Amino acid sequence: xxxxxxxxxxxxxxxxxxxxxxxxxxxxxxxxxxxxxxxxxxxxxxxxxxxxxxxxxxxxxxxxxxxxxxxxxxxxxxxxxxxxxxxxxxxxxxxxxxxxxxxxxxxxxxxxxxxxxxxxxxxxxxxxxxxxxxxxxxxxxxxxxxxxxxxxxxxxxxxxxxxxxxxxxxxxxxxxxxxxxxxxxxxx
Length: 188
Known about the structure:
By secondary structure, this protein is of the alpha+beta class. It folds into two domains: 1-32, no CATH class; 39-187, FAD/NAD(P)-binding domain, CATH 3.50.50. It is 30% helix and 10% strand. The protein contains five helices and five strands; from the N terminus they run βββαααβααβ. The protein has helices spanning 39-42, 54-57, 91-111, 121-135, 166-178, and strands spanning 10-12, 15-18, 21-24, 116-119, 184-187. The chain has a three-stranded antiparallel beta sheet with strand order 1-2-3, with no helix packed on it. A two-stranded antiparallel sheet has the order 4-5. A hairpin with a 2-residue loop joins strand 2 and strand 3. The longest helix has 21 residues, at 91-111.
């Protein structure tokens, strides 16, 4: 049943009433759909440098560095954001990896008296291109699913998750941290 075209009026003991019709049911599964990976972040109205919102920055599709940070949005950490393996992995483990990486990063920033942490535009562009290149080597970007944003009218078609594997992704995150957070602008 498409409740966008015919909204549910009421749940009654006999089932679901839509207009004058009652649809009998024993079990009601409510799958509301969702704006995966970007929706929760863009709806928070996060404002970056120059007054640009995250929704504006992502108007043509999400861009990030490692799925963790966005150029122009200092000190914003996006846990399991677009460009990370997140939704294609064991989510609790991926969340844990991002939280640990973020906590280690914040500890590094404090030890070094760094007040601003921000992905560079170049790192963001290169990572976003890499995520797209890996995805385009598969059929996944051709699917009309929430992975590509096709469940949200007007959302740009972009395969948002990193398909390069959790192991290589973790290794890349560790390498970047070991190199003093390469690809990030750190300022006092």
